Structures are given as structure tokens and as C-alpha cells.
Amino acid sequence: MKPSQRLEFALIKLYKAFHNNELHPEICTKCAVGNICNNSDSWQYLTDFHGSVVLNYVGLVNQNFNRKFHGYSPLELLKIEAHFLAGCGYELPLNGKNKKPKNPKDKAVLFNGLCEVVRFLCELDNVPNVMDYTRLFEYKDEKPKYALSSFH
Fold first, then answer.
1. Packing angle between helix 74-88 and helix 107-124, nearest 10 degrees?
2. Rounded CA separation 148/47 (Å)
3. More confident of the two residues 138 and 57
């Protein structure tokens, strides 16, 4: 199944941000949603707390008018960010007291966060998780159930 344009663009942006060391969970222009939104901070005004999935007045107005930001609704953006932060090991919402990773720029931390984001983005578009390789190891009668070429 071919991914939607919004999913494809989001994955490309996140891939580039990860490999160019331009991903940071605590900076609104460099987090998962900040990168999806072309490093804009405008999405942060949709909620009162970073990591919250509760829309504020501005977020509700945009949601109710069916406004899309890079293909995603305000609520979808907040959920994407919450998945990223939780995957990175943050306790939500972000504040000075909640649990957070010791090194938020650690590649393993960021990779875990991105795995959660990609899983959720695929769920939003009702497509199989592009990072799920568990099918590669399924077998029947001691032989691989799927050929490696079916994953291209």
C-alpha cells in the first residue's frame, strides 16, 4: 500500500532531521512536530503545555475549522508530539518536575521516539508500520513465510 503524501513528507523530514542531528525533543522547532512543520514554532500555540494532547482555545478553533498543518489536524499534531516525547522517555506533559531522559540528544533516545512517531503516523493513515520487520521472521514449515523481496 502506497503511503499518503502527508505520511511520506513527514517520514522524509524526520529521516533528514535524525541523520542531520537536527532533532531535539525539548525545542519546539526541532522536535518531531517542529520538523514536520518545516521547523516552525506555530504548532506550539495549539496547546498550553508541551506534550499535552489537550487543545487550547486557538487549537480548538483551528480543529473546529478543520484546519490542517502539513496535512495534520491540530489534535493529530499534539498526539504525534506526545508519542515522540513518550517514546524518548519523557513523562508528560513536559515541566521541570516530570521524568526526562538524561541526554535528550542521544541517538538511541531519539530513535526510540521516532519509532513511536512512525508507528503512530502509519496508524493515522491506516497503513502497516513501515518500521515493523517482524514479518521477516515469520515462518511456516521451517521456511520463511514471506520473501525478502516483498518488503521493497
1. 150
2. 43
3. 57
**8-48 pLDDT per residue, tens:** 999 999 999 999 999 999 999 999 999 999 999 999 999 99
Contact at 8 Å (CB) between 29 and 23? no
Q: Where are the domains of the chain?
A: 5-151
The predicted-structure confidence for 88-98, as pLDDT tens digits, reads as follows 999 998 888 89
Question: Which cell is 9 given?
Answer: 513528507
Question: Could you tell me if 10 and 36 are in contact, meaning their C-beta atoms sit under 8 angstroms apart?
Answer: yes
Cell numbers of 33, please?
512536530
Going from the C-alpha of 2 to that of each of 8, 13, 27, 129, 152, the distances in angstroms are 9, 18, 32, 12, 12
